[in-house]
Amino acid sequence: MELELRRGHLQTMAKIALYIFIIVTTIGLSLTADILGMNQSISYGETLVSSDLIFELGFFTPGNSSMSYLGIWYKFSPETVVWVANRNNPLAERSGVLTFSTVGNLVLLNQSNGVVWSSKSSRVLQNPVVQLLDSGNLVLWDKFSSSSNEAYSWQSFDYPSDTLLAGMKLGLNLKTGFEWRLTAWKSMDDPSPGDYVNLLNYSQGLFQYEIVQVDGHSKKFRTGQWNGVQFVGIPPIPIPEQAIVPIFMFNETEISFMFEVQKSQLLLKMTLNYSGVLQVFVTDRSRSAMSNLMHEFPSDSCNLYDRCGANAICSLGLCECVKGFMPRSPDEWKVLEFSSGCMRTIPTNCSKGEGFMEIKRVKLPDLLDVTLNKNMSLKKCKDECLKNCSCMAYANSDIRDGGSGCLMWLGDLIDMRVFEKQNYGQTLYIRLSASELGMHTYAN
Predict the structure, then answer these.
(1) Is omega for the bond preceding 298 within 30 degrees of 0, making it cis?
(2) What's the average model confidence in pLDDT over 21-43?
(3) 97-112 burial, b for 16+ CB within 10 Å, e for fewer?
(4) What is the mean pLDDT of the chain?
(5) What is the pLDDT of residue 10?
(6) Other residues' Cβ atoms within 10 Å of the Cβ of residue 237
(7) If pLDDT is split at 50, 70 and 90, which confidence band does 242 have?
(8) Phi, psi (5° rounding) for residue 249?
(9) What is the DSSP letter of 147?
(10) 201: buried, middle or exposed (CB in 10 Å: 19+, 13-18, 0-12)?
(11) Distance CA 267, CA 210 (A)
């Protein structure tokens, strides 16, 4: 009798186990599965989850939208999407399938088996494997090759959406011209490419990061140029000390910015939102939402591009014409409308006695009409600027080891601001007529 009861109990347990197995198989992949192999696929409701349960990949429908997308989000905060595959080709129905093509590409198929997105791998893979890493990077490689970064056939980190995660690059491959850039969502409910991009502007060996409105290519914010130590217009971001390490790469192959997180319990992301503001979020992994906003770019009115117009300087939200200049439209300035900028009070004409006024701790003007000589001293730069009747101002291009290199501005000076604190900004020398030279300072 006792033996029969045991047999009945075992049979019941077996039926329960089988029932659970069927349910799990029907619903989809195990929540701990981070790898998808050949002949496997993911449908709506199924997900990949990174091994340490940080990131999750699957299909989502944002906000009030009726469209579906393949994306990656934080496991603890599903509403915080950090990457979207089919931004340009949403699925109108919840029937998308992520699988592999015959040549090993990762492909997203719609209800009619049409390809709406593909990884477009550079080589044919015989046994493709895709894995969601704890970094949030979705990587594709051949099963019988190494899984090191160099062996990845494709990775999502090379194709950012609106978010920069630790280990992702933002910049430019100088050999191929390939760009790593952020593109904002169209709206809170629409992850299609929006109105703003965050990219590296590189020309003549000079570079800076900019937030640009796609329609009309108008700038909303710029970091200021790299001066060998930092971007001249960016003070340090107030993030936990020694927790985040910024890494800037500048060589013959690439110019790029990335960051690493030194404390494993912290998560950091930089997101370009749909209104064109780059936001820095830091949170502890134990929390349930990515809501700790640490910094924004632009962070104040002086950070807004060309806030004060030409030949003017912004300080503490107020605009002032540079000495030797006056408002081009005084009536507009009286009502705090500064876009018309400033013009010279007394034109310069390369006459004897002209010189320069020094302004310290300034965000140098935009790189619109400049010349660069990396081997010229500051003294020689001054002499060359005086010889050139079009030269409006000059500064060192590199501040390391006492300063070197010569930057000369040959047109209006755009988007300048003065910082209150030491070690922010740089020294700029602005040309004045002989009668206007004298004591005047913006940064005591």
Answers:
(1) yes
(2) 65
(3) bbbbbeebbbbbbbee
(4) 88
(5) 47
(6) 17
(7) low
(8) -110, 125
(9) -
(10) middle
(11) 24
Beta bridge partners of 59: 70
Residue 390, burial from CB neighbour count under 10 angstroms (0-12, 13-18, 19+): middle
By residue count, the chain amounts to 444
List own/partner pairs for 71-80 with CB under 8 A and 24 or more apart. Answer: 71/191, 72/132, 72/136, 72/138, 72/156, 74/267, 74/290, 75/49, 75/50, 76/285, 76/287, 76/288, 76/289, 77/288, 77/289, 77/290, 80/289, 80/290
What DSSP letter does each residue of 239-264 carry, written as one string?
--TTTEEEEEEESSSEEEEEEEESST
Residue with tokens 């006792």: 2
User: Residue 7 corresponds to which amino acid?
Assistant: R
Helix (H, G, I), strand (E, B) or coil at 3: helix
Does the domain at 15-157 match CATH 1.10.510.10? Answer given as no
The closest of 403, 324, 312, 408 to 362, measured between CA atoms, is: 312
Does the pTM surpass 0.85? The reply is yes
**90: CB partners within 8 A, 6+ apart:** 65, 67, 68, 69, 192
Express each pLDDT in 397-439 by its tens digit. Answer: 999 999 999 999 999 999 999 998 777 899 999 999 988 886 5
What is the predicted pLDDT for the residue at 264? 80
Residue type, 419: F
Q: Is the dihedral of CA 283, 209, 340, 346 positive or negative?
A: positive
pLDDT band at 273; cut points 50, 70, 90: very high
Residues of the chain with CATH 2.90.10.10: 15-157, 160-299
Q: pLDDT tens-digit profile of 279-292?
A: 999 888 777 677 78
Provide the token pair at 390.
Answer: 């079009």
Kindly report the CATH number that applies to the domain delimited by 160-299.
2.90.10.10
86 in Cβ contact with 108 (< 8 Å): yes
Token readout for 235 is 């003070």
